[in-house]
Hints:
The structure holds 3 protein chains of 3 kinds. Chain A is mostly helical. In chain A, 74% of the residues lie in helices and 0% in strands. Chain C is globular.
Amino acid sequence: MFSDIVLYARYLAVSMRGQMQYRASLVMQSIANLLGSGIEFIGIWALFSRFGTLRGWALCEVGLFYGVVNVSFAIADALMGGFDLLASTIRSGEFDRVLVRPRSVTLQVAAREVQLRRAGSFLQGLVVLLWSAWALQVEWTVARLALLTVTVAAGACFFSGLFMLQATMAFWTIESLEVMNTLTYGGRDTAQYPLSIYQRWFRRFFTFAVPVACVGYYPVLVIAGRPDPLGAPAILGWLTPWAGIAFLLVCLRVFGFGVRHYRSTGS
Amino acid sequence: MAVPQIVVENLAKSFLVPERHPGLWGALRGVVRRRHRRVEALKGVSFAIEPGELVGYIGPNGAGKSTTIKILAGILVPDSGRCEVMGRAPWVRRIENAAEIGVVFGQRTQLWWDLPAIESFDLLAAIYRVPKRDHIASRDELVEWLDLAPLLDTPVRQLSLGQRMRCDIAAALLHRPALLYLDEPTIGLDAVAKLAVRQFIRRINDERGTTVILTTHDMDDIEALTRRVLLIGEGRLLYDGTLAGLRAKVTRERRLILDLANGAEEPRDPDAEIVGREGKRIHLRFDPDRIAAPELIARITAKCPVRDLFVENPPIEEIIAELYEGNAL
Amino acid sequence: MRPYLAIVSARFRMLLQYRAAAWAGVATQGFWGLIRVMVFDAFYRSSSATQPMTLDQTVSYIWLGQATIGLLIFSVDADVRDMVRTGTVAYELARPVDLFSLWYWRSVASRAAPTLLRCMPIMVLAIALRGLGPPASVASGFAWVLSQVAALMLSAAVMTLATISLLWTVSGEGISRLLPMVAWLSTGIVIPLPLFPDWAQPILNSLPFAGMLDTPARVYMGHIDAGHASLAIARQLAWTLALVWLGRLLIARGTRRLVVQGG
């Protein structure tokens, strides 16, 4: 296990050094990434300036949801970037090389690449998060800070699992991974707004089927010190992040299933 | 009593290949429904390989060579049959098997594109969990044998094909595997590079005792390196033995090539048949059991002035094609 | 004309091979549209002030955007990018067709193919969900089709310009990365343009990108009534011609530069 972590770190170092070689391009891409993800919040701000409120939620409250989810997503996006490449790895035949090495397939795929430019969207999420926390005058207790950390970590696990699921599809079809974007990017976009604004079936879906609310809505309510308009008890916010981690474990299983399929069909 | 290192018994594998319909209308239909066709890549292949052998695995494209190698490497799971590499089924105990094999895929490098070769080697040592001292010893040995010292600090993307192939071969052997699978290692290389690779393969087989399975289309590789040849065609093993034996199996013929002197006519002889002509060069075919080469040469040169001549075996590709078509076994 | 038709047909066939991708695209856009509609619905219910567009109009706008999103993706032609990177773009220059037209019609094809494939199913889906209503009038509907075609031409021109910029920056970075952000926002796909703050309206309407989605959507809903529609379509076409002219200028400069540098 330990040697796996060491190897992962080495892979990341290699990938980072490879990208640092093109420094100017990296900076450009990071800025573009930052702006691109920032556009979403610009849109939200524009709407707030026109409508004033979102079902009782203020801009800084929405900002907190937005910030936490975006930061989690960006971390997962950066660390699990290798899964994006899985489809092309399979197509080029390089996946065979992964199978010929005496290490875990999951590790090799995940570690293949880290996208430094995604730091742009991480920064953007962090800025919005910090601003919202300040504007809301959140009371930072040790417990709340711990919850924030766990939530972000669990969120990163959760989105990592989604990326894994999306990549696993590449074992069956050449090109339909796009539909999973509804869950990855769609899940993020949904969780940017408080869950209470959505209709019931939508809320249910994103709480139980694709539990993004477990790593966004409920814990953030606790951190912000706001009661849930839907009436759920506050204790939920302390417990639900663990669902994100459990979700990742399930996705790991599914990925293993995909690898088995590849090995019996050859491509 | 040596235990075979590789045992393959009745190995079978088939694939489902989607069918494509031509044209625009066909493509639209394909959106709604897709049909598949079953292709049998291996139809019951059996052989055994002892430790330290250097075996050539040849056959036409699509015959099943890559499929066999993939099964031996643990990449593919066969449909049926038995396969044991060093006592393990490679697809069942993938990681254990992988630690003891080295694989070189001719057209795909395993090195990191942006890194100098030496850093790829270091990373591989970490992947294969080779202790530092062992890694340095093995690496230095390979660098010396393959003459890689001037290349080590160059990013791999800047190396020529021949240089990259040598680095790839070294990379596959860093962890001192007992087995080496080479899939088309000399493809695209110039003559000098090919020679270097062949010399190295012989050396690694001699000095480290590494078992080598070589898949190739290049018959010169086979003739130069291997004593034993496995010929596969359409999923079946058509021949398992020496190269000379393969030749003899199909044909007992030899070739006599003459460079005619100026003004000479084409030679005619009851025991020899003309099979080709390039300007003044005539290719003749004869059966050495019917007529000994010296006798034939004497007869022909008596009637026909000749500037130069040589006797050789028929090209191996022809033998294989004949064998494969006629299924002379 | 034949070579261009062949290009369009070949592109269509290539894209149709990925059948799962076709259905997936419909599902993706459908889901996306749903999320956006729900968010806007929540916003509208939060305030009783009158807005430049009613909720129904906004919802229609969103669905039209999802249906025609294929026209709005700002990506350079991947084939050309690879060609410039490896230097094989020289082969493109050697072909006996006008380079700008080649790239332009290829853009048209790569925009039109996925859009046509998804447009109908998404609109059907949107109508079934009672999100998208019928056009404001028969005349509006007819004008919408014309405006949509103009949007396709305009969008292809924009994308071709982005592709041409590759002749300057090999990796497609820099300008061609930042500009799409601004352009994306100015098409109205993120927020319908009429809902932007009032001070931003004149700026947004003066950009060419408004013609890619905002104009046809507003024509459909009668926001721009049938009488004024011809003016709006004329603006779309004017922008298209301007960008085409600019593209031809730049491509001549760019190829000369490549040839001088030796590729």
